[in-house]
Amino acid sequence: MTNASTDNQKLYEGKAKIIYATDDPEVLITYFKDDATAFNAQKKGQITNKGVVNCKITTHLYGLLAQKGVQTHLLETISDREMRVKRVAIVPLEVVVRNIAAGSLCKQTGLPLGTLLEPSLVEFYYKNDDLGDPLLTRDRIFAMDLASAQQLDQLVAQAQQVNQVLSEFFISCGITLVDFKLEFGVDQAGQLLLADEISPDTCRLWDANEADEKKRVMDKDRFRQDLGDVAEGYQTVLSRILTQLAQPS
């Protein structure tokens, strides 16, 4: 497929995606790049066909979530790397859901890697690279006027719903959803919508059938930790998703 974004004005370029304008001011094009970053962009590189794989994974997972009543900004996927999406004002909070202790949670708390978290944790991080995306409390969010109490309750409820749907689906794919990051935005009508992406860039995914701590990793931790076979890990996630979705319901 050709890239529709080439004829449109670039509005913003981030670490993993580029946002383009369209003829409709309320519709944007999201272009998925192959660039990879870690540790607040201190480590940079590229993962072969990452943009294609992440666009496809996000498309399928957003479709699955839509069937379960989760509303997203996705309108349609128009090429291997591009989506038409609703323009939203991004809430400046990353919503992180943790089912199993890993990554920064282990470093900050001393919890052993792999500790099951019951109930799952829902955390908020301030989207600010200059400050290192710090973990925020509810009171700090209110003091900074980043979101209202009602919005926070909505964010938690939607994050928990997404977690339930995706955890069950990934298990059917032989994958454990360890933790993941979500972003949300508000559209012109004032509706809160799931935005950004859901992919191995934003999820920590382990092969449920692999006991080895390094071999089980299927996400961007392969890039962060120099485990090798990064592109293969991403492709395996996509392949398992497609295989499971092809199963008769």
UniProtKB/TrEMBL annotation:
Pathway: Purine metabolism; IMP biosynthesis via de novo pathway; 5-amino-1-(5-phospho-D-ribosyl)imidazole-4-carboxamide from 5-amino-1-(5-phospho-D-ribosyl)imidazole-4-carboxylate: step 1/2. The keyword Nucleotide-binding applies. GO terms for molecular function: ATP binding; phosphoribosylaminoimidazolesuccinocarboxamide synthase activity. Pfam families: SAICAR_synt. Residues 10-240 form the SAICAR synthetase/ADE2 N-terminal domain. InterPro entries: SAICAR_synt/ADE2_N, SAICAR_synt_PurC, SAICAR_synth, SAICAR_synthetase, SAICAR_synthetase_CS. Its EC number is 6.3.2.6. The keyword ATP-binding applies. One of its GO terms (biological process) is cobalamin biosynthetic process. It catalyses: 5-amino-1-(5-phospho-D-ribosyl)imidazole-4-carboxylate + L-aspartate + ATP = (2S)-2-[5-amino-1-(5-phospho-beta-D-ribosyl)imidazole-4-carboxamido]succinate + ADP + phosphate + 2 H(+). Keywords: ATP-binding, Ligase, Nucleotide-binding, Purine biosynthesis. PROSITE patterns: SAICAR_SYNTHETASE_1, SAICAR_SYNTHETASE_2. NCBIfam families: purC. Belongs to the SAICAR synthetase family. This is Phosphoribosylaminoimidazole-succinocarboxamide synthase. It comes from Phormidesmis priestleyi Ana.
